User: What shape does this take?
Amino acid sequence: MKLLVINAGSSSLKYQLYDMTDESVLAKGLVERIGMDSSILTHKPTGKEEVTEVSEILEHTTAIRKVLDKLVDQEHGVLNSVDEIQAVGHRVVHGGEYFKSSALVTPEAKAEIRRLFDLAPLHNPPAISGITAAEKNMPGVPQVVVFDTAFHQTMEEKVFLYPIPKVLYKKHHVRRYGMHGTSHYYVSRIASEYLNRPLEDLKIITCHIGNGGSLTAVKDGKSMDTSMGLTPLEGLMMGTRSGDLDPAVVTFVMNKEELSISEVNSMLNKHSGLLAISGSSSDMRDITDGLEAGEPNATLAFEMYEYRLRKYIGSYAAAMNGVDVIVFTAGVGENSAIVREKVCENLTYLGVEIDPELNKIRSGEPRRISSPNSKVEVLVVPTNEELVIARDTLRIVEENR
Ligand code: AMP
Assistant: This one.
């Protein structure tokens, strides 16, 4: 079966076309600047030249039509006909408590995703645009929604509730949901396969650290705790997001600086984290360049980032009463040897010992970076959220045939 995986953002749309007979990617690409005058479509068919096309793409329906045109294009295409696509899988950030796993798109499912707009105002509306656009372009083709939050639905009440008046949970569903679930799910499974040890025997801390970042304590293969909360703002220090702080900082700063709700949201989501402390960049590559050059603001940003990450690892080891495996994944986790080195350098009390040479290797494959003496296995596992979406889409479509 051939299926299309779609990840729709407010002004972007990423796609991958899979042939599920061997899980190969036939083509992938990205539409950027949707709704702006010069939108860019970058299409990469496997084994052929990448193409870039600039045009006016005002909404997601046109974006998907252009993508489908490319997929069947004489020169750059990989399909004879759009009819070969037998299912579409969509990434949706917030599934609330309603979606505990992936689901077929139905009118009820769409209504539920709309009800969750309040909890994910930046993320769920574009997902609905993507779904509607796919329905218009491929009528009758089954569609599946896969949620970032679903893997974390196994958290216990004592973990997901905030210690605030309970009425806020009942009335407004205020609780920890967690994000990056497909990634935490995937890398924990790969870690178990790589080590040839059953998930039921493992206490794993998965560190998904990219532009955004979250940690998950995975026990018996299930998410026991995770660092993102009601929204993707809680937890680690990130590229432009603050992560944890005293909640009173928010009202204090709003009062002193006379900030509106949207201004303070923007400050915490877009102007904090590495960017705020370094004063120059949210990108870990720039921060580590600054660190190596002895630049004081970049050094401080790096040290805060590493310290906060390490504190979370310690707290999840405490939450699970131990840790067998630490997994690093996503842009920073997969690529930054120095972040991994510095974090692990101060985890010797847990028996963590990494091999500096193994830590430097880049392979794009799951690999061990801990030394044989280490009491904790430390792995680097490239994440693949699209593959999880593709597999779930296939499974749900087959179950509903
Ligand atoms: P992601 O959100 O997973 O795509 O991760 C993107 C982030 O990964 C970028 O903003 C960088 O901060 C980080 N990154 C990518 N490559 C490297 C690298 N070679 N060294 C350090 N950080 C990197």
Q: What stands out?
A: DSSP finds 15 helices and 14 strands in the chain. The longest helix spans residues 296-320. The first strand starts at residue 2 and ends at 8.
